[in-house]
Amino acid sequence: MSLVPLDETYILYNPSDWASTVSAYLALAPILILMFYLSWFITSWELEPLLVAAGQLLNEALNKILKRLFKQNRPGPEPHGGGPGYGMPSAHAQFVAFAAVYLTLRIALQWPEPLQRNTALVLLVWAGALAIAASRVYLNYHSLEQVCVGWQVGCSCSLATTLAVVVGGRPSFGCRTGWFGR
């Protein structure tokens, strides 16, 4: 089996295995989540997306600190075992857990009915987050333990950020209500 990097990244995967290919693309989720925060800010001119993105980046900084503290290697043999960087906790699991908790609480606290649409959206968010976390184990970048610890840290950081941002009153710059000043 020959592993190749996904174009424009260095995510190693087996192109003849469809689950490996899907897992490699799921690894791009943190980039898409940050693009979502930026787009939300540009279109709404609210301060909330910047504060949530800042919380997300602080969550990422905490991940780097914890990796240096735990110093646990990535699982298994090559290509990832003993590879660059430590594996505990999983940064991807921590990142998507943060986003999933934030979006769930924002939907629950601030979006009006219909309940069925909101429930479906929350289930979709969590299914995506779980698929991304599971993909890290499937690609052998992390052990289940590393993913679970990352998940717990991400959930905790998100809860703290959500309490500070959403419950604190959704601040905005007050300059305009949208990108075109409507």
Automatic annotation (TrEMBL):
<dbReference type="GO" id="GO:0005789">
    <property type="term" value="C:endoplasmic reticulum membrane"/>
</dbReference>
<feature type="transmembrane region" description="Helical">
    <location>
        <begin position="151"/>
        <end position="169"/>
    </location>
</feature>
<dbReference type="InterPro" id="IPR036938">
    <property type="entry name" value="PAP2/HPO_sf"/>
</dbReference>
<keyword id="KW-0812">Transmembrane</keyword>
<dbReference type="Pfam" id="PF01569">
    <property type="entry name" value="PAP2"/>
</dbReference>
<keyword id="KW-1133">Transmembrane helix</keyword>
<feature type="domain" description="Phosphatidic acid phosphatase type 2/haloperoxidase">
    <location>
        <begin position="49"/>
        <end position="162"/>
    </location>
</feature>
<dbReference type="GO" id="GO:0042392">
    <property type="term" value="F:sphingosine-1-phosphate phosphatase activity"/>
</dbReference>
<dbReference type="InterPro" id="IPR000326">
    <property type="entry name" value="PAP2/HPO"/>
</dbReference>
<feature type="transmembrane region" description="Helical">
    <location>
        <begin position="22"/>
        <end position="42"/>
    </location>
</feature>
<dbReference type="GO" id="GO:0047874">
    <property type="term" value="F:dolichyldiphosphatase activity"/>
</dbReference>
<protein>
    <recommendedName>
        <fullName>Phosphatidic acid phosphatase type 2/haloperoxidase domain-containing protein</fullName>
    </recommendedName>
</protein>
<feature type="transmembrane region" description="Helical">
    <location>
        <begin position="91"/>
        <end position="109"/>
    </location>
</feature>
<dbReference type="GO" id="GO:0006487">
    <property type="term" value="P:protein N-linked glycosylation"/>
</dbReference>
<keyword id="KW-0472">Membrane</keyword>
<feature type="transmembrane region" description="Helical">
    <location>
        <begin position="121"/>
        <end position="139"/>
    </location>
</feature>
<dbReference type="GO" id="GO:0008610">
    <property type="term" value="P:lipid biosynthetic process"/>
</dbReference>
